[in-house]
Amino acid sequence: MITTSYHRFRSLVFVAIIVAFLYLLYSKLIANNTSGPPYSLYAALKKQEQKTARKFLESLQLIEAQKDNPKFVLFRQQEGLDFGSQACYAQEILLYHHLALQGNRIFIYQPFEWKSRKEQLPLSAFLLGVTQERAVPSSFVEELCPKTSIDVARLKVDLSQPEMWKSTINTLQKRKETCIIMSNPIIDSNFLSSPAGHSVWPLFQKYVARYFRWSTQVLDIVDRTHTHLDLRRHFYSLEGEPYMVLHLRRGDFHKQCKTIAQQQLGFTKWNTLPAISSATLFPRLNPANATSVMDHCYPSLSRIMEAIDQQAHRKPHIRALHIIHDDAASVTDIWKLETALKSKQRAELYGWPYGPMKSITHSGMVPYQANEQDFSVGVDVEMARRAEVFIGNGYSSLTSYIVAMRLGGDVVASGISDDITLL
Q: Is the pLDDT of residue 394 over 90?
């Protein structure tokens, strides 16, 4: 009996190693086929941003000829943010655009900065909506806000978080200067997790529904992915399988979670919204307890399975799971999840009325074409935004981004908090 169990264990380990090897080989082949940024596209988009901005400024001269001159604002973004942290970068940019609109000023947006590549990428390649709604690129700064002009104010808002947002809006609205350049970041890494951030949410939620739009590049890949993986494009569509998305954060995140546990930190950013406080999988998080933090930050597969089971009971018609991940180390866990979730015996044991999952897909199966890897984060976020159910990690900025985009609610995403589970 012991010998049989041992041989079975060895066989499972061997199969896991083979699967991991094949996945890594597949990933390498895909990377080779899709390697290299789309520089010609970026160059064209930069020109288009300039052209769009010029037309917008010309239209202002006609429309506002009898009014006050249009006013602008350039915010200082957090230092240390990189394109590699797109989820943080994008949330900050969206909030600053929202803040500029609240302050009745035109937003001077900056490009995405990829520091490790020493490159600046056009914002419109990713977040199109920001660039098309009362906004101009930072390449217009010297023209609109010349350094020698007395009509340019360089300001610093030095207040506590609860007062920072309101005070900035008041400053933007009341100052007479054509240009305001903020010398300190208005939004820091703790802002969205605080009561001050929560107070901003109701209007930002409306902003997301009205102004948030992906670029054509991101949407084309998402559309192609739904077709390729036979997943439903919209929750109200009839084509493709209805699906839930799991954000599986693995790899180097374990080390980060240990640091978070030592610092006794709670969930991050929009994951702390009162509207989804009931979305956390039991037992509730206790930041003062290191074991509790690790259970939520780096959940076991059994905990992940429990979250999937609960949502499967709520919506038994969903029999497809798409896993978004960013680390090859996730491959073994994906294989284990697929083995369990496709098991008829397990489905019967846990009371799945319509049987086990029929389809389990993941980020590594997205059909990227040449030069499209830069758009992978946007594709993952939109795939999760359109899913009927989303299961995420409360300590992840990417999960926070997805939560905000889902709760923003539009004809694509229903914005129902019950359809979200935080591990």
A: yes
SS3 per-residue string spanning the chain:
CHHHHHHHHHHHHHHHHHHHHHHHHHHHHHHHHHCCCCHHHHHHHHHHHHHHHHHHHHHHHHHCCCCCCCCEEECCCCCCCCHHHHHHHHHHHHHHHHHHHHCCCEEEECCEEEHHHCEEECHHHCEHHHHHCCEEEHHHHHHHCCCCCCCEEEECCCCCHHHHHHHHHHHHHHCCCCEEEECCCCCCCCHHHCHHHHHHHHHHHHHHHHHCCECHHHHHHHHHHHHHHCECCCCCCCCCECCEEEECCCCCHHHHHHHHHHHCCCCCHHHHCHHHHHHECCCCCCCCCHHHHHHHHCCCHHHHHHHHHHHHHHCCCCCEEEEECCCHHHHHHHHHHHHHHCCHHHHHHCCCCCCCCCEEEEHHHCCCCCCCHHHHHHHHHHHHHHCCEEEECCCCHHHHHHHHHHHHCCCCCCCCHHHEEEC
Question: Which residues, including other chains, have CB under 8 Å from residue 257's CB and lie 6 or more apart?
Answer: 293, 294, 297, 298, 395
Q: How do residues 315-327 score in pLDDT, each as one tens digit?
A: 999 999 999 987 6
**Is the predicted pLDDT of residue 33 greater than 50, yes or no?**
no
Q: What is the pLDDT at residue 340?
A: 97
366 has a pLDDT exceeding 70:
yes
Nearest to 76 by CA among 118, 47, 109: 109
Percent of the chain with pLDDT over 70: 86
- Please check the confidence at residue 218 and state whether its pLDDT lies above 90: yes
Q: How many residues does the chain have?
A: 423
Assess if CATH 3.50.50.60 describes domain 214-422: no
Distance separating alpha carbons of residues 164 and 409, to the nearest angstrom: 27
Tell me the whole-structure pTM to 2 decimals: 0.88
pLDDT at residue number 7 = 56
Helix axes 161-174, 86-102, angle to 10 degrees: 50
Tell me the pLDDT band of 237, cut-offs 50, 70 and 90.
confident
Give the Cα separation of 257 and 272 in Å (integer). Answer: 17
